């Protein structure tokens, strides 16, 4: 079965997620921004979701983790929880 390691930042609005994505693109550290802005408990770990398998995350996040390019920041991705920025470390 496939598995991946990923991290994310969860915020309330699409605009907030887009602004954070620009800051990451400009060189700010993903984990630092996650600790400061993410509303998910994983924010305390720099957004680290640990190792995940297909079906463990909500569908929209699962799609990013298992189908999009590795090591890029994807998003904003909408879910019932808000808007996410997602980065996959590795996938096998």
TrEMBL record:
<keyword id="KW-0963">Cytoplasm</keyword>
<keyword id="KW-0697">Rotamase</keyword>
<comment type="similarity">
    <text>Belongs to the PpiC/parvulin rotamase family.</text>
</comment>
<dbReference type="InterPro" id="IPR046357">
    <property type="entry name" value="PPIase_dom_sf"/>
</dbReference>
<dbReference type="InterPro" id="IPR000297">
    <property type="entry name" value="PPIase_PpiC"/>
</dbReference>
<keyword id="KW-0413">Isomerase</keyword>
<protein>
    <recommendedName>
        <fullName>Peptidyl-prolyl cis-trans isomerase C</fullName>
        <ecNumber>5.2.1.8</ecNumber>
    </recommendedName>
</protein>
<dbReference type="Pfam" id="PF00639">
    <property type="entry name" value="Rotamase"/>
</dbReference>
<dbReference type="InterPro" id="IPR052204">
    <property type="entry name" value="PpiC/parvulin_rotamase"/>
</dbReference>
<feature type="domain" description="PpiC">
    <location>
        <begin position="1"/>
        <end position="90"/>
    </location>
</feature>
<dbReference type="GO" id="GO:0003755">
    <property type="term" value="F:peptidyl-prolyl cis-trans isomerase activity"/>
</dbReference>
<comment type="function">
    <text>PPIases accelerate the folding of proteins. It prefers amino acid residues with hydrophobic side chains like leucine and phenylalanine in the P1 position of the peptides substrates.</text>
</comment>
<dbReference type="InterPro" id="IPR023058">
    <property type="entry name" value="PPIase_PpiC_CS"/>
</dbReference>
